[in-house]
Amino acid sequence: MGQSILFGTVASAALLLGALIGSFVTVPDRVYATLVGFAGGALISALAFELFSDAEEHGGVWRASIGLVVGATVFILVDALVVERARGSAASLGLLAAVTIDGIPENLALGVTLVEGASYALLVAIAASNLPEALGSATRMRADGRSTTFILGVWSGAAVLLAVSVVLGRAALGDASGGTLALLLGFAGGAVLASLADTVLPEAFEHGGPFVAFAVVAGFLVSYVLAA
C-alpha cells in the first residue's frame, strides 16, 4: 500500500508542478513542444512494453485487444463530447477534463502493475505527460482570466483524484482474475493510444514543428531503458 501511495504521489505531483509553472509563466513554444514530445515517446514505449504486453500476458491477445479497442473508443467519444461542450472561454477547463479521461485508466493500470513489481517506465511516462498537460491548461486558464487560486485548486483536485486511482488500482484490482486484468490494462492502453493520436503528438508538432520528433525519440528510449 505504501508503494502505491508513493507512486500516486509522484505521478500526480507532476500535475501540480505543471499547474504552478503555468499559473505564473508562459513557457516558450519550443520548450513546451519538447516536453509534450518527450511525454509522447515515453507513453508509446510504456504502452508497447508495459500495458499491452502485460494485458496479453494476463489474459491473451484477444482480451487485451478488446480492452484496447474499447478504451480507445471511450476516450474518443468522451473527448469529443468534452471538446464540443468546452468551446470558447471554457476550453481550458476542457483540457482539464481531458487529462482525467486518460489519466484515470493510466493510474489504475499503474496501481495494478504494482502487484507484480513496480513499473518505473509507466510511472515516468505518466509523470512526463502530466507536467506539460497541466502546464498548457493552466497557461490557458490564466489567459482566460482565471485566478491563481482557482487554477491551483482545480489541479490539486485532479492530482488527488489521479493519486487515489493508483491506490485503488493496487488495492481493489490487484486480486482480479487474469481475464479482468487483461481487459483493464488493455483499456488503459487504448485510452493512452487514442490520446497520443488525438492530442499529444499533434500538440507537440503544432508548437514545435518536425524537429520535435527528436524529443519523441528521447522519451521512447528513456522509457524503454526503464522497462528493460
Summarize the helix and strand pattern as letters: HHHHHHH
- Helix run count: 7
Number of domains: 1
Oligomer: single chain
Separation of termini?
A: 25 Å
Large-scale geometry: globular
Estimated structural class:
mainly alpha
What is the overall pLDDT average? 86
What's the total count of β strands? 0
| Share of residues in helices | over 70%
Strand content: under 5%
Kindly provide the radius of gyration, computed on alpha-carbon positions and rounded to a whole number of angstroms: 17 Å
**What characterizes the major β-sheet?**
none
Low-confidence stretches: none
Task: Explain this structure.
With 228 residues, the protein is an all-alpha fold. It is 87% helix and 0% strand. The protein has one domain (2-227). It is built from 7 helices and no strands. Helix 3 runs parallel beside helix 5 (148-173). The model has no long low-confidence stretch (mean pLDDT 86).
Observed structural traits:
mainly alpha, 7 helices, single chain, 0% strand, 87% helix
Q: Can you give me a brief rundown of this structure?
A:
This protein has one domain. 87% of the residues lie in helices and 0% in strands. The protein has helices spanning 2-24, 29-85, 91-113, 120-143, 148-173, 178-208, 213-227.
